[in-house]
């Protein structure tokens, strides 16, 4: 007992008396912290400081405030946005024939280019005062998604000027003169922009661009002025082959000190008309056969005036920061929109095809193997749409949440790939044979494009999500890092000392909180909702607390090494991402008015995300180098074992059946998927066959029974089958007509395209 009292006194003295605490705890801890601090490159520091945090910070803190979360309102379209969606967007969709675009012309038809420019599809993010549409991120995302269900090539062409590029950079940083000149021209389609960062030597490591701009004197419009001599070689640049204005990122130097003392100025962005002397554009790449414009741009000793720098001379050297700030918005909209399109389209069309296509005497969607694939599509699409909406909500609130947009881009494009593969498996040959009736093939081929553009996913998962999350979302680490980098050592120590106590009590709370929640199965955690989702909130709060504890311990033990141990840190990033996706699912369920029909989808998504969280922790514990810490964490977080299971077979069967059921749930889950009321159309032929077969399901049932009884011969089809069914008095005359029409639709729907000899070779489609 005496020893215990003595211990308590020592601890109280150590922590409560500032001088003792400072010299015995804070100072050595500060020195340790400085030693293990991940070394940050200037570009990483800028990336880290760019953008905001939002719900990710709550999830990372271990104490998510669910009430606050549910107070955020899902964005609504303005009247102008809704009118555009109902009119211009639908008109454009009706004009798109993706088979011709990709296989014949390898370009959008001129009338489509003209329409896109005239109706300002390129100007969704440009302000009204400059003639743009000034649409919200929600409208932008909806429009790009819906186009992508029709044509990825058209969607990419529209999306690029509306994400990272001259329009966005000018809006945020442009001088008045630049805005007044360029924005109206971009808005009315007079100019087409592109933005060039990537080059042969600089892909993922975009900060390492070798392209240079040297400050010098030169001649511009007949006068000698101070300007920049540029040399660049860029590749993979979307819209470059048709662009009239080039946004260019380069490293700027001032060796002769013409602008001041700083010789190495840093990454800078300029806007250059492609007609300017020395600018070379026009060469095209062929990105997995897609028809959007993508290519190279070069320049050798191209002289430009200083006021072509975006934002003017004041913004020289600030390019990286500008890109990071703008990227985080675009990254949360455009590529996720393509993935959402894949989800909506594959769910709607796979549900239809699985019913229309019959083998072994019944719709293939009734076979359990097919239902597993369908369950995955329907369940994953619920998350895709939920995540799209939640991230867009943050952006509509004016946030620029860099970690959230990184998670959204990575996970949505990855989920897009998974649902696309599942849809291809269900469609089998129908998905493979290209032609006007194939709605999957081009999207399947284009899947890696969205994964690679705006950074590549491996890097996003392994470096960005946890790397930035750990510092941006942690309640203390960023402030501690700032204290550690304070040039005034004593001042830094003072800041650090005040943070340390809070950090220690935060960590202790995480440890004991995790243990308690683990032992009680989180049953005492508060849930903001009652009913079937209440348990999910309890488990998510528990896993959020576990993440806060594990992230702290990982940083404490591994320090800067954690950045290099990407496989470990990525797993913690996965936990954060799945917490975010699961929250998005719960929010959507509430926002949509708790629809009973949604529950199987919610159940799938929640089981999946909790299972993945469990697996990420399991992998982390198995590979964490400090075995003692690893075992302690495992014991604190899963004291009774890890019991999160994958979605059940029954759950997937229910989803599959719902996907084959026409009606409100199907329409609500796939509202972004465009289909045309035309039996010859890419998606229309499947939708019409499906609807007709469902409507006349009873006729099909009676005929099947009659065949079984032997009243109708087994091997009949088409007209012969109709006649036999009439003769056997299984169907009435009116039903015979309806059946005949439905059979024609069914045959068209299970059909694929075939081409006469020479047509494919000569591209004479
Ligand atoms: C169709 C298309 C359109 C594009 N449009 C544009 C555009 O308009 N403007 C523009 O500037 N750029 C554009 N890009 C470039 C795009 O952003 C880059 O392709 C991307 O940043 C990756 O560069 P990379 O392809 O050279 O891959 P690399 O950098 O060669 O990477 C190869 C692999 O290594 C991984 N990797 C690299 N470093 C790490 C690391 N530290 N940790 C873990 N993994 C790592 C990457 O994730 C990737 O999987 C486009 C690309 C494509 C394919």
Walk me through the structure:
The chain is α+β, with helices and mostly antiparallel strands and 765 residues long. Among the domains are: 1-36, no CATH class; 79-188, Butyryl-Coa Dehydrogenase, subunit A, domain 1 (Orthogonal Bundle); 193-323, Butyryl-CoA Dehydrogenase, subunit A, domain 2 (Beta Barrel); 472-643, Butyryl-CoA Dehydrogenase, subunit A, domain 3, CATH 1.20.140; 683-750, no CATH class. It has 32 helices and nine strands. Strands 1, 2, 3, 4, 5, 6 and 7 form a seven-stranded mixed β-sheet that branches. A two-stranded antiparallel sheet has the order 8-9. It starts with a helix and ends in a 15-residue tail after the last helix. The mean pLDDT is 94. Residues 194-198, 203-204, 236-238, 287, 294, 449, 452-456, 458-459, 462-463, 566 line the site of flavin-adenine dinucleotide. Flavin-adenine dinucleotide (FAD) binds next to strand 1, strand 3, helix 18 and helix 19.
Please provide a brief summary of the model:
With 765 residues, the chain is of the alpha+beta class. It has 32 helices and nine strands.
């Amino acid at each position: 007992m005496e020893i215990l009292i003595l211990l308590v006194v020592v601890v109280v003295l150590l922590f409560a008396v500032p001088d003792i605490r400072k010299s015995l705890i804070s100072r050595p801890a500060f020195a340790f912290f400085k030693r293990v601090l991940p070394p940050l490159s200037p570009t990483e520091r800028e990336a880290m400081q760019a953008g905001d945090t939002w719900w990710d910070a709550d999830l990372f803190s271990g104490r998510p405030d669910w009430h606050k979360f549910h107070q955020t309102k899902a964005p609504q379209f303005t009247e102008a946005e809704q009118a555009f969606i109902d009119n211009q967007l639908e008109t454009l969709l009706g004009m798109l024939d993706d088979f011709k675009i990709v296989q014949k012309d390898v370009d959008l038809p001129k009338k489509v280019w003209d329409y896109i420019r005239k109706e300002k599809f390129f100007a969704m993010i440009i302000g009204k005062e400059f003639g743009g549409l000034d649409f919200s991120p929600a409208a932008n995302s909806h429009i790009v998604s819906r186009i992508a269900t029709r044509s990825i090539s058209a969607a990419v062409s529209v999306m690029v000027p509306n994400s990272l590029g001259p329009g966005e950079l000018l809006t945020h940083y442009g001088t008045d003169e630049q805005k007044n000149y360029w924005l109206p021209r971009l808005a009315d389609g007079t100019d087409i922009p592109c933005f060039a960062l990537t080059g042969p030597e600089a892909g993922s490591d975009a900060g390492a661009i070798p392209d240079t701009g040297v400050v010098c004197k030169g001649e511009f419009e007949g006068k000698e002025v101070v300007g920049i001599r540029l040399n660049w070689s860029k590749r993979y640049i979307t819209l470059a082959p048709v662009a009239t204005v080039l946004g260019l990122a380069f490293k700027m130097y001032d060796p002769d000190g013409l602008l001041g003392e700083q010789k190495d100025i840093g990454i800078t962005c300029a806007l250059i008309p492609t007609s300017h002397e020395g600018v070379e554009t026009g060469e095209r790449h062929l990105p997995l056969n897609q028809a959007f414009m993508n290519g190279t741009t070069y320049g050798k000793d191209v002289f430009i005036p200083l006021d072509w720098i975006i934002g003017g001379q004041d913004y020289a050297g600030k390019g990286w920061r500008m890109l990071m700030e703008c990227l985080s918005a675009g990254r949360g909209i455009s590529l996720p929109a393509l993935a959402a399109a894949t989800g909506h389209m594959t769910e709607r069309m796979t549900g239809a095809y699985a019913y229309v296509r019959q083998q072994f005497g019944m719709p293939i969607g009734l076979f359990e193997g097919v239902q597993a694939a369908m369950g995955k599509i329907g369940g994953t699409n619920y998350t895709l749409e939920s995540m799209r909406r939640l991230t867009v909500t943050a952006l509509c609130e004016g946030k620029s949440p860099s970690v959230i947009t990184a998670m959204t881009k990575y996970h949505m494009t990855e989920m897009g790939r998974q649902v696309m593969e599942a849809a291809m498996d269900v469609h089998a040959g129908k998905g493979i044979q290209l032609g006007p009736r194939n709605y999957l093939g081009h999207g399947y081929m284009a899947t890696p494009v969205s994964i690679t553009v705006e950074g590549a996913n491996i890097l996003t998962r392994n470096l960005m999500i946890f790397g930035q999350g750990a510092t941006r979302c942690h309640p203390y680490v960023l402030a501690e890092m700032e204290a550690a980098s304070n040039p005034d050592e004593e001042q830094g120590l003072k800041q650090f000392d005040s943070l340390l106590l809070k950090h220690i009590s935060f960590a202790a709370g995480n440890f004991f909180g995790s243990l308690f929640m683990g032992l009680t199965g989180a049953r005492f955690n508060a849930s903001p909702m009652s009913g079937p989702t209440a348990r999910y909130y309890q488990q998510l709060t528990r896993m959020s607390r576990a993440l806060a504890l594990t992230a702290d311990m990982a940083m404490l033990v591994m320090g800067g090494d954690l950045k290099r141990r990407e496989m470990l840190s990525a797993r913690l990033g996965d936990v954060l991402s799945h917490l975010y996706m699961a929250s998005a699912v719960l929010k959507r369920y509430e926002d949509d008015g708790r629809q009973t029909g949604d529950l199987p989808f919610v159940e799938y998504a929640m089981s999946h995300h909790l299972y993945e969280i469990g697996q990420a922790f399991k992998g982390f514990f198995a590979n964490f180098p400090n075995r003692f810490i690893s075992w302690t964490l495992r014991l604190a977080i899963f004291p009774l074992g890890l019991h999160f299971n994958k979605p059940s077979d029954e759950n997937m069967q229910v989803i599959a059946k719902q996907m084959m059921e026409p009606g409100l749930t199907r329409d609500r889950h796939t509202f972004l998927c465009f289909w045309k009321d035309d039996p010859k159309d890419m998606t229309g032929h499947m939708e019409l066959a499906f609807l007709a077969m469902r409507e006349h399901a009873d006729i099909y049932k009676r005929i099947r029974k009659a065949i079984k009884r032997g009243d109708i011969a087994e091997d009949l089809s088409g007209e012969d089958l109709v006649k036999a069914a009439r003769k056997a008095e299984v169907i009435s005359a009116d039903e015979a007509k309806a059946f005949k029409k439905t059979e024609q639709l069914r045959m068209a729907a299970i059909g694929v395209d075939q081409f006469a000899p020479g047509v494919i070779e000569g591209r004479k489609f």
